[in-house]
Amino acid sequence: MAGRREELAALDGLLEAAAAGRPGFALITGEPGIGKTRLADELAGLALARGFTVAVGRCAATEGAPAFWPWAMVLERLADALPPLPADVRANLPGVGSATENDPEGARFRTYEAAARALTAGREPLLVILDDLHWADRSSLRLLGYLAENVREGGLVVVGTARDLPPPEGTLAEAFEALSRRQAVRLPLSGLSASDLAELAPAGTDVRALRDRTNGNPFFVTELLRFMDAGPRGGAALPLGVRDVVLGRVGRLPEPSGELLRVAAVAGREFDVAIVAEAAGLSLDAALDRLEPAMAAGLVAEGRPGRFLFVHALVQEALTEVVPVLRRARLHAAVAAAIESRADGSPAGRLAAAAHHWFGAIPAGHVARAWRAAWRAAGEASLLRAYDAAVELLERAVRVAGDDPASSPGERMDLLLALAEARFGAGDSAGQEAELARVRRLAKQAGDRRRWIEAATGYGGRILQPWKVYGHYDAELTADLLELAADDTLERAARARVLACLALQTYYEPGREPAQRERWSAEAARLARQENDATLLGRVLFARFYALLDPESVHHRLEAGEEMARTGLEAGDDELRTIGLVCQGGTLLELCRVREALDVLAEAERLVGRTHMPYLRIILGWLRLGVVIHQGDLEAAESLLAATAAEQRATSMWGVESTTAGAEYQVALMRLRQGTAGAARPPQDVSHELLDRFNLDAYAHYLVVMGRLEEARRVLGPWERQSPIPRTFVYLFWLVVRCEVWAVLGDRRACADLYEEASPYAGRMGMSGLSMLMWPVSRSLAQLAEALGDTEAARRHARHAEAVERELVQPHSAAIRLR
Q1: Which of 137, 210, 316, 712 could cross-link to 703 by cystine, CB 3.0-4.6 Å?
Q2: What is the per-residue pLDDT across 226-276, written as a single tens digit (0 to 9) for each?
């Protein structure tokens, strides 16, 4: 293959690794026409020769293709090559419309997992080629990123091609970053050299001049040679660029053929000739007759059954650009109307394509049709769990509806509410919050109490409300909730939601006492119980649990977790039951009731495996990591850490950086205890305004563990200058770290103060909410008592700590097991 032998050898190495069960990823980039697809096609030939199954998905999101389009094409082509898949996998594959409103982000992850299982289920190794990723919809790119982060075993190679300009941004950039983290093979292609061109050009061609004119771009070279072979008309000069070459070749066709190609170009790179005929006002036979010369000239080829495609994207782009703006808008409208008149194919595909063309028709006066079509298409995309695609459609719909005087305030708010829900499903809880804030303001101005309440209490999913940024406090939302709570006419269910959200939203409010949050959330739970609505009660109890994540409210939290689990069991609601079990099990660990905790978490683990809820699996992963570390299984701990961090990075949950940094340090301490070479490294700093204060404690702990006590003293300074630990969910974690540091440093005043502070929590575990399980507080109290010379107290606390840690090291058979 002229000029691409080294690149092909690198890709062939991925095939060799995949044949041995090691998956690989590659990204081929370069300008249009540089040969990205040609190189991928050559790789496909090598893969087939090696016994691989090959599936190609071509991206075409700019033409209104349905969400997950390239993956749906891949899976369609694999239908006969894969063994029978379990029903739950088939129901969640990309392109299968089975999502519900209950768990949008869980539905998205079920789709990712189903795709991963399908792609690694075959008996033969598999090569997947995703062509033109720069056009891929967001859902397809997110799936690619998930596969790059999570598929670690199996005979799978995924190769993507993409243009290098403009530079990738948004979801495309995120997918490329995921590929980089996976150390994917990166192949940026440049133009062919003069010696390479000598293999392509006819004998006697001045290849240096050809190289100078085309910069070695293979498509430009081929098209220019074809143009020259046909002979210039009337002594005209050679065209300057590849688009000029394309237009010159089209200009040699009969005019009716050229006109039909311009209509087809507006319809998309791959087009249904019946739709193009209808848009052009022609019969199908007349359109086919006019298409023949273009096929003979090599500008158009047959595509999927009943469809045709331009041989290269540059052909379609060149033709589209020469259609005047208003003419192009009218053609978009005609294509959209033709698409909507059809009943064949999937509704998602039709609606997405129609929305794309109605947007293109806006200059011709079709504003309302555009945003309404996008709203309908977003609904279908959500049914396919393609929430990223729904977000993209709704973002455009919101912008256009905002400029449409015919749209009502209620319609604009409902669009924003739909966008908020789609953002949550797409893993963007911060984006969901922002859209809900917009609705709150609009609803308040309009006096629309129903939508005001919906927006003020709508954060999160059906029950779960994901972790927010540490210390985040929204004064405007709190003011709204307080105003709503003061309204005595609120219906009971609405009041329950408002009070529960008020308790949760004021968690970080300066000066707000936990007792007030307890009263609000208790009243919310009382009202919700009267409604006989398991979902409402579950949401209220979950808010109560998180609103009471302080060291004094542990028993209230345990009761909330138990009631959630019980309510979920009675209602047959696995999601609610699992949430309750996770909250209950984590709280039992905090209370050092280890055997009970591990039993409860084992049941939660079983349910999570069945229901595929990503948030809960992540929380369980961090909880389990502390248990695994106590059990001394270094390999299992490292594997669990990597898997949990990767899964959290793919969600909207805040805290992946801080939690991963803490977990990595825990594993480093484990290596040190086991004498592993190069064991301990300083903990990573957590870059967050309200968490910076803890970086010093973490670094001092590292210095103490390494025996560098004088450095630790210099880093910390005198005890009197230490900041108090905030009494939030991080309190017990940092308390045990600080106790160990100052006990080793031997500062008597510090040890006495810390002994007094920690004593009320002698029966508790040092942990951070539902993560970062360290060691019993009693272990730290034993260290402090020893430093203070109180041997009897030290022995008493040590006996308690040893008993708790024995239960962590040797759980009975019913306890939590590794996946």
Answers
A1: 712
A2: 777 766 554 445 455 777 888 888 998 999 999 999 999 999 999 999 999
| Cα atoms found within 13 Å of the Cα of residue 783, Cβ hemisphere only | 23
Query: 10 Å Cβ neighbour count for 148?
Result: 24
CA distances for 224 relative to 3, 230, 265, 420, 817, angstroms: 19, 10, 21, 50, 65
Give CA angle at 240 (197, 229), nearest 5°: 55
Task: Write down how long the chain is.
Answer: 819
DSSP 413: H
> How far is residue 511's CA from residue 669's CA, in Å, rounded to a whole number?
37
Vertex 357 angle, CA 353 and 360, to 5°: 150
Among residues 104, 127, 133, the alpha carbon closest in space to that of 18 is found at 127
User: Strand order in 300-302's β-sheet?
Assistant: 270-272, 307-310, 300-302
Give 577-603 pLDDT, tens digit per residue: 999 999 999 999 999 999 999 999 999
Can you give the pLDDT at residue 818? 31
- In degrees and rounded to multiples of 5, residue 70 shows phi and psi of -65, -35
What are the residues whose beta carbons fall under 8 Å from the beta carbon of 188, sequence distance 6 or more? 29, 30, 164
SS3 content of the chain, % helix, strand, coil (to 5): 65, 5, 30
Whether 118 contacts 70, CB under 8 Å: no
| Alpha carbons 614 and 657: distance in angstroms, whole number | 17
Locate 189 and state its tokens. Answer: 């292609």
| Residue (of 426, 732, 401, 393) closest to 557 by Cα position | 732
Sheet holding 24-30, edge to edge: 53-58, 126-131, 156-163, 24-30, 185-188
Alpha-carbon span 314 to 241, nearest angstrom? 11
Distance CA 376, CA 351 (A): 7
Sign of the C-alpha dihedral computed for residues 332, 333, 335 and 340 taken in this order: positive
